[in-house]
Amino acid sequence: MPFGLGHRGRGEYPGMVGGRRARTFLVWLAGIGGLMVVVATLWVLGEGESAVDSVTLLGFPIALASLAVTVAGIPAAVSALTQAPDDAAGARASAATLAQQIHQAEQREWLRLVGGDTERINLHFTLRTHGQRLPATTMASSGSLFDDGAASVPDIVTFYRDIRPARLVVTGSPGGGKTVLALELLLTLIGNRSESDPVPVRLSLAEWDTSAMDLEDFLVRHLVHALDWPPRLATRLVHHRLVLPVLDGLDEMDPLLSHDGHPVLDGHGNPLPDPDAPRARAVLNLLNTYQDGLSAAPLILTCRGAHYDALPEADRLRTAARIHIAHVTPQRSITYLARRSGDSPRWTSLLHHLASRPDGPAARALSTPWRLSLAATIYHNSGDPDELLEHTTPADLENHLLSRLIPAATELDAVAPRRSAAGPQRRYTADDVHRWLSTLAIHLASARPGTPSEPAGAAGTDLVLHELWPLAGRRRVRALDAALSAAAVVLTLPVSWVTPYPAVFATGIVFFAVAAGVIAALNTSPVPHRLHWGRLTTPHGRVDLFLGVTVGLVAGAGLSLFADTLLGVGFGLACGLTGGLVVGAIGEPVSAAGPRQILRNDVAYGLMSGAVWGLATAVIAGLALEPRVGLACGIVGFVSGLVGLSAGITARLVDGVLPRFPTGIAAGFPATRRYLVFLLCSRNRLPVRLNTFLDWACDAGILRRAGPAYQFRHREIQHWLAAHSQQAGVAGVASGL
Question: What are phi and psi of 136, to 5 degrees?
């Protein structure tokens, strides 16, 4: 499919004009064309025709072969004609668009992370050089998240701009604020960037399959798969080093240290990291070879401090500055909690205890922004904050806070004003929320390898709507998807009675229905498509629209060689105009899209693809036979396009070969259809309006959005829910039957 890369080898992304696959395809096409001409020549000579008749008969195969080669070469020719004279200038223009897209998406995520806090916690960090091979040079040895006027230390942006080379490793304790710091650094860099500065793009390292791609390929894949950039433009941005990787979650690459299947804990009850960590070490090895000319290329990396320290020194990131986020001091904790609580009397005893015992267990447990924010949220409206004093270790306190998180979130939602019609139409109970999120958490813990968002061996982190279907049972969902796809085609049987030969037409419909069901059942990785209608107003969009119409007319001219001229022109206009609209709407994105919007765009794409085949079959059958046959064929063609029948037959033959064309133009919307089938199969285990519930969980601070995916806001929430599921049989369902 055009922009769902899956797992390709290096240099094989669709859209790379002139690549090995495109050259191979053209060679085979030319060879087949030549073979056709040779066979036709031998046949004509064998028939003993006259010279004039021989030339006439040979003209058709020669013209057909030439037409095929010409059409196949159009994408490369147009790509060359539309290529900007200054490729670097074109890349800088694309970088400006990417910066706007990233800022729009990450600004919303930042507001969700800190929006519930009336007071921001200023994080402080120190430079660590011990155990760092070839450390980068920097002027300061410490800094803070933002300048609050309390000390003469640089903020994180000033600190980062002074690093040479600009490679930064951010470490800290669990919940210490690594993601918030990286996110604020990203937003500020975008806000202050010049035309030539790279655009910081945040990526989850758990998605990186290091055995199949290097960092450049991973960046291109993310721009294409998560941000919907055309492969050609994404490759150009990465090639010119206009993408600054902000790599989040090195500690999530590998499982924790275990013995006989049980995690090994430290003295405080925290699980220990595995010093071997093969995937994390593979990532660092690739990062150490990531260059910008003769210098190490800029990047930002986050990791838990204990995980980073457990890695062998030789495997850590070289020529980089490592900073470690310090714990929040008791005085800052007191100030934060007092302001968040509005000096409520319920908090007086706890605040007094923290002030009188700054080295006590409670002060140490409440020394991270995550636990502070969690405590302030849980006890905001009700409850006794003194309960926090009953837990003497950070792990015990965190377990208590996590057990109270969902009840507190549903309680806050119950007293909040009723949302608009776009929001949830009913309240969620704590039991339902716990059960649904536990189901999703266990699914991530047992996620099978090979999905686009979870490469082989990775710990599950991403909840992508159209990739959740294995949760309800792989065979069950695929079987129902196949049955519904076949049924959709069978529903067109009544149109056969308007044709002169209903029995033949009905037999064809049944054949198409069976084929649609088989194709749906064999589709193990449905990929959504997106259209950017705003791109049709841009010069490149208009060029592609004209290109699509031109190709349709060329195809119609080829059809006219052995059919009626009117038939060829009608076919060309119908397919060319519809296909040109689709081609023109695929390209540089004009805005960021969330999980819900991706499915909506996939449906729009499916309707367009169905229209392509409906118009094509209606025009051909109507002009070749009679209007009522054309109408019947158009209805069947439209439904077949919707269920992806034509895609299963033709799209894979040219996938990645004709890069400027949507090779899955008749792919329908199998990703959205598979998601809807999944909801039918899991209606007793998950809410029917799952995306609405997931949006609510983001607003409640339990989940967060990461491009097209949902993620648990903290790894601890996901692990706690998976370990404290209260519904029977969840693990068996999540494993994917």
Answer: -70, 160
How many C-beta atoms lie closer than 10 Å to residue 130's C-beta? 8
Q: Which of 298, 166, 283 is nearest to 214 (CA)?
A: 283
> What are the φ and ψ backbone dihedral angles of 296, each rounded to 5 degrees?
-65, 130
Sheet with 199-204: list strands edge to edge.
Answer: 142-144, 124-128, 321-325, 167-172, 299-304, 243-248, 199-204
Q: Residue 492 is encoded by which pair of tokens?
A: 């067109």
What tokens were used for 344? Answer: 């409520």
Contact 142, 124 (CB under 8 A): yes
3-state secondary structure 273-319: CCCCCHHHHHHHHHHHCCEECCEECCEEEEEEHHHHHHCCHHHCCCC
Residues 214 and 264 in one domain: yes
> What distance, in Å, lies between the first and last C-alpha atoms of the chain?
26
Instruction: Give the list of residues 6+ apart from residue 212 with CB closer than 8 angstroms, or none.
Output: 7, 8, 9, 10, 455
Q: Which region among 110-119, 228-237, 444-453 has the lowest average model confidence (pLDDT)?
A: 444-453
Whole-angstrom CA distances from 73 to 5, 68, 230, 658 are 23, 9, 19, 9
Query: For residues 556 and 567, what is the distance between their CA atoms, to the nearest angstrom?
Result: 8
Tell me the chain's radius of gyration from C-alpha atoms: 30
Would the pLDDT of 234 be above 50? yes
> Is the CB of residue 422 less than 8 Å from the CB of residue 384?
no
CB 188 within 8 A of CB 106: no
Show the tokens assigned to 459.
């710990």
Q: How far apart are CA 693 and CA 224, in angstroms?
A: 27
Confidence of residue 2 (pLDDT cuts 50, 70, 90): very low
pLDDT for residue 243: 95
The token duo for 55 is: 């030339």
Averaged pLDDT of the chain: 75
The tokens for 159 are 């600190």
Residue type, 648: G
- CATH code of 258's domain: 3.40.50
pLDDT of residue 634: 82
pLDDT at residue 298, as a whole number:
94
pTM (two decimals): 0.73
Choose the final residue of a domain: 385, 415, 445: 415
Last residue of a domain, one of 361, 394, 415: 415
Is residue 450 over pLDDT 70?
A: no
- Asked whether the bond before 687 is cis by omega within 30 degrees of 0, the reply is no
Residue 48: pLDDT band with limits 50, 70, 90:
low
711 φ, ψ (degrees, to nearest 5): -135, 150
Domain that holds residue 350: 343-415
Same domain, 289 and 374: no
Are 306 and 377 part of one and the same domain? no
Q: Are residues 105 and 137 in the same domain?
A: yes
Is position 23 within any domain? no
Distance CA(644)–CA(483), nearest Å, equals 14
pLDDT of residue 149 exceeding 80, the answer is no
